[in-house]
Amino acid sequence: MVEWLGRCPYGRWFLRRAVSALVRGRGEHALNRRAACLLLLVPFLSGCAGDGWHIVDPRTAEGWGNLSFLMAGAGLTLGLSATALLLAIGIGLLTAIARSSRWRLLRMTSGAYVELMRTLPLFVLLLWVFYALPILVQGLAPDSVGFRALGWIADLTPFAAALIALALNAGAFLSEIFRAGIEGVPKGQVEAAQSLGMGRWLTLRRIILPQALRRMLPPTVGQFIHTVKDSSLASAIGLAELTRRATELQTQTYRPLELYTLLALEYLVILLILSRLSRWLERRWGQAV
Predict the structure, then answer these.
(1) Of 16, 113, 239, 278, which has the fewest beta carbons less than 10 angstroms from its beta carbon?
(2) For residue 8, what are the CA distances in angstroms to 22, 44, 49, 52?
(3) Transmembrane ranges (predicted)?
(4) For residue range 21-31, what is the model confidence (pLDDT) as tens digits?
């Protein structure tokens, strides 16, 4: 094992972190962390048995170049996920409000959107947006109002297609989170606001949403974690995010063990940080609910 760790430039660092996670902390989260480290430790040490770690060794010019290439993909992954989440928050909030509307058609339309996005696989949605949606737009008359409004979709880039698919998918799940948060506000406070002469939208903005935010924030961060994981599907349409860049390096170096092990560790670090943020928000904001 010592020889393995010597070959792997990240072996000693990972071993120290794994041992620290195994011996520190108490409670359910600490047990989950220990189990995750034990599950990951065996394949990682097996991966260190290979002799190809020089391709991601920061001490060499080749390794540093490959790491920089991968890190650029990590930035694109986080940027895509964050932008998609911002759009999804707007979509989800509007959908949640529409589902509690007095207009039946609006409720039915928003409900149909939520059910469609929750049942349709994200990968299928991504392929449809990138390959099929531009064909529909190209079929419109060039001088029509629809083409002037949607003409930009005819030349969708992989980033734009992934952004649309992720936002539509996450927006459906966030709408349920937002609706639960809005309905969790006591009706007595809504009735008190209306008795003071506040309209429906003023009550929503000043009374309901500020209180619902405490319930919505932790699961929203959890949805961001799912969006980061789902963004790896964008590699199938040519977006040069983290997974795609690792695959491109693998086709050049023929080192899948080292590159995909490092890819798994990169996602692990990103998602563990976001998971800790989610639990911190849950402890901080959940006490006030």
Answers:
(1) 16
(2) 21, 10, 8, 9
(3) 35-56, 76-98, 119-137, 149-174
(4) 545 555 555 54
